[in-house]
Amino acid sequence: MINLKTALLLTSVCTLAACSPSTPYETSTSSAPDSTSIERDILTASGDVLGTLSLVDLGEEGTQVTVSISGLEGAGTHAMHFHEFGLCEAPGFTSSGGHKNPMNMDHGKMSPNGPHAGDMMNIEVGSDGTGSLTVINEFVSINGDHGLPALLDDDGTALIIHEKADDYITQPTGAAGGRIGCTVI
To answer: What pLDDT digit, counting tens, does each position of 26-45 carry?
Structure first.
């Protein structure tokens, strides 16, 4: 009888534990080495918020990148790339260096020896100044796990929004023009 009561008690406890709400998943905004997601504001050279960046580590599949633009004047197609340094010094954001390219590849998904790890799809922005895009960058991870280069490396990484579209082949930048938005990862 005691074994039956013990079994029922254990079953009840296990059932309650399984049905209890779990601790909500928290989005990390720190650059701690164990971050699995990151959210950042994308700023213009004048310090205004241009939009937001959200990163989610997908393990061996890379990193999910979501960019939402909400403050860009006019419609158009704009390149977005990860750049090699975590610096966003205005006015030109050139402190972020070139595209993240630890494997020494050519620029662009249409290049036979490409792309850079930092190359991604263009984002479309409507006449109201808004646009959103979610892509999977299979060439980087947040922390450098799974043999992929890290966004959170010793000198950081920046996400840059460019004034023009990336043509996916012109070396070394895809003819994407100036840098109009930046965030440090």
So the answer is: 223 333 445 689 999 999 99
CATH code for the domain defined by 35-184: 2.60.40.200
Answer yes or no: are the C-beta atoms of 146 and 60 closer than 8 Å: yes
Beta-carbon neighbour count of residue 81 at 10 Å?
27
> What residue spans define the domains of the chain?
35-184
Helix (H, G, I), strand (E, B) or coil at 14: helix
Residues contacting residue 43 through CB under 8 Å, at least 6 positions apart? 49, 50, 88, 181, 182, 183
Tokens linked to 2 = 């005691």
Give 89-125 pLDDT, tens digit per residue.
Answer: 999 999 999 999 999 999 999 999 999 999 999 999 9
Q: State both tokens at 51.
A: 């939009």
Q: How far apart are CA 47 and CA 155, in angstroms?
A: 22
Residue 123 contacts residue 77 (beta carbons within 8 Å): yes
